[in-house]
Amino acid sequence: MGSGRATVWSEAEAPKYGLQCPKKALETSQILEAINRCNSTGGPTGTHWVLDPVDGTLGFVRGDQYAVALALIEDGKVVLGVLGCPNYPMKKELSNYNHQHGQTIPKTPPSSDIWKKGCVIYARRGSGRAWMQPLIQGDTQFEWPNSATLVQASPVDDPSLATFCEPVEKTNSNHLFTAGLANSMGLKNQPMRVHSMVKYAAIARGNAEVFIKFARSGYKEKIWDHAAGVVIVEEAGGVVTDAGVCPLDFSRGLYLEGLDRGIIACSGPILHDKIIGACLHQTMSGQAYSEKDVDGAADTTNK
Ligand SMILES: Nc1ncnc2c1ncn2[C@@H]1O[C@H](COP(=O)(O)O)[C@@H](OP(=O)(O)O)[C@H]1O
Ligand SMILES: [Mg+2]
């Protein structure tokens, strides 16, 4: 299951990850057959891997943030999430440096020796822990924990100190509505606009406190754009719901069916309560939340 693109993983890399290399190299037809087996449509029962091989395509083509996202869903619940973030630095201060300079990655790193580019962040449901480690470089053998470190969502619960992140593209989320929310909550920092599920990674490792995505009405969120990120944020201590305070429902097929307006991911319950309150207030006071409501630009296509 995935977003329709396929990556062919190099068999030669297998031993690096403690896996057995196939005795004979796979032929193209065998690889295509394996890819064709990826035809699950999800649902409430069974076990499914959910893969987004390039999440944040625009970020990828721009040389900015993107993620390779993998999640395991068992009977409709996400039990495992892994985010490979090739342009997201291990060092927290470097991610902050990027944000302060209005870009998600610096084009010129401050110093190449401290610039360990790229990380993998992952969590298992119920473990209460989320891990981060550098991408395996060169000939390094993968031997867990291989410099993996625990990450935790930020303890900040004062909105005036919190940073919120959102999609870069205003076609993907209503920036006007989120600016209104941020304002009514007293969020003072500039929004951190980041492509892809790296936004969930930023919450889980404490670079930002709030992630809000309010897509146009008619747009249906895909499970592969959120599954890995949600479990990672939750295990790192964060809270993720829709605007109606319901958990995201991964049991209803390829889409997050029944999603109430938008997605709100926070570093903790206090900020989450505040943003839900602000959201209610904003909706009651008639502020439109979807771009369609704002400018009539209905777009019901599901890319
Ligand atoms: N009109 C739209 N509204 C909301 N999300 C959209 C959208 N069109 C595409 N997307 C989804 O938003 C994802 C990117 O998220 P973000 O905007 O947070 O970077 C895309 O993932 P892909 O890039 O994997 O296709 C895509 O699935
Ligand atoms: Mg995606």
UniProtKB/TrEMBL annotation:
Q: Name one Pfam family in it.
A: Inositol_P
- Name the domain of life this protein comes from: Eukaryota
What are its GO biological-process terms? inositol phosphate metabolic process; phosphatidylinositol phosphate biosynthetic process; sulfate assimilation
Q: Which reaction does it catalyse?
A: adenosine 3',5'-bisphosphate + H2O = AMP + phosphate; 3'-phosphoadenylyl sulfate + H2O = adenosine 5'-phosphosulfate + phosphate
Under Gene Ontology molecular function, one entry of this record is: metal ion binding
**Keywords, in A-Z order:** Hydrolase, Magnesium, Metal-binding
- What's the cofactor? Mg(2+)
The UniProt record gives the binding positions of Mg(2+) as: 52, 55, 225
Transmembrane regions listed in the UniProt entry: none
| Assigned EC number | 3.1.3.7
- Which NCBIfam families does the record associate with it? bisphos_HAL2
Q: Which PANTHER family match?
A: PAP-SPECIFIC PHOSPHATASE HAL2-LIKE (PTHR43200:SF24), PHOSPHATASE (PTHR43200)
The record's similarity note reads: Belongs to the inositol monophosphatase superfamily.
Q: What function does the entry list? A: Converts adenosine 3'-phosphate 5'-phosphosulfate (PAPS) to adenosine 5'-phosphosulfate (APS) and 3'(2')-phosphoadenosine 5'-phosphate (PAP) to AMP.
Q: What is this protein called?
A: 3'(2'),5'-bisphosphate nucleotidase
Q: What is the lineage of its organism?
A: Eukaryota, Viridiplantae, Streptophyta, Embryophyta, Tracheophyta
